[in-house]
Amino acid sequence: PSNIPGLVRLLQAYLTKAAAEVAQGEQLERLLGVFRKLVSSRAHDHHGFMVLNVLVEGLPLQNLAQYMPTVWQLLFTRLQQSGTAKYRRSLLVFISVFACKHGVAQLEQSVNTVQPGMLMMLITQVWLASASLVAGPVDRKAQNVALTKLLTEWPVLWADRATWGKALTAVATLLAAGDDGEEVDEEGDAPVEYTGTYVRLANASTAEHDPLAEVKDAGAVLAAKLGEFSASQPGQVAPAIQ
Questions:
Q1: Where would I find the Exportin-2 C-terminal domain in this sequence (predicted)?
Q2: What's the rounded Cα separation, in Å, for the pair 80 and 82?
């Protein structure tokens, strides 16, 4: 339906103001049901991720933990069956927000409920190949900070020096490229039709929500955290970069 974008934005605003109430009641399960329906649609999957991002950003992980194995299973099944460029981009932004808000260790534990080693598999087979799809200053920043955290806080990635080097190269390339990513059709395979139910005026759109508003410069974060990591691994980081 053409009113989905407006409804999702209304839902985002509600979640931002009433996260505590959502966490305590049955509303969380209903909202996850909304996410499930939206993400199963190639036309509206990015709206489903908008709902999921707000939940992960605004709620304590303890409220979401019991649902996350099902969420990951759903996301990875859809990735396998119909991993469009738009879908992969939305998935990477979601994983980035999760890592930035709850930490790399919690991300690993949550993702690997699907199967052991799933996060590393995701990085090597999907993330590094699709990172350039993520565009725009807000989403790019979230991804760059998340990859920086994985590079400097996750021993599993550091143990695989080749992949670690590729991940560092990916972040450096993204930072050098600025905010532009590969162009992706937001509406996916949505049929082209006019309904008039929902019309978004270009000059009336609200400012994009930034889940990492406290971070002003992702490049500075990379430099600082890489410096700290290098100091904790004397003589090992420089050879891995070369």
A1: 2-242
A2: 6
Q: What is the DSSP string of 126-194?
A: IIHHHGGG--SHHHHHHHHHHHHHHHHH-HHHHHSHHHHHHHHHHHHHHHHHTT------TTTT-----
Phi and psi at residue 115, to the nearest 5°:
-170, 150
Instruction: Report pTM.
Output: 0.87
pLDDT of residue 192: 32
User: What contacts 104, CB < 8 A, 6 or more positions away?
Assistant: 149, 150, 153, 154
Tell me the HSE value of 191 on the side-chain side, using a 13 A CA sphere: 5
| pLDDT score at 179 | 65
At 14, the amino acid letter reads Y
User: H/E/C letters for each residue in 92-133?
Assistant: HHHHHHHHHHHCHHHHHHHHCCCCCCHHHHHHHHHHHHHHHH
Determine the pLDDT at residue 185.
52
* 3-state SS, residue 18: coil
Is 138 within 8 Å of 127 (Cβ atoms)? Answer: no
For the stretch 206-210, contacts whose Cβ atoms lie closer than 8 Å and that sit 24 or more positions apart, written own/partner, are 206/9, 208/136, 208/138, 209/12, 209/16, 209/138, 210/138, 210/141
Both structure tokens of 151: 């590079």
Q: Can you read off the two tokens belonging to residue 103?
A: 């930490």
Q: Are 128 and 122 in contact (CB under 8 A)?
A: no
Cβ(199)–Cβ(132) under 8 Å? Answer: no
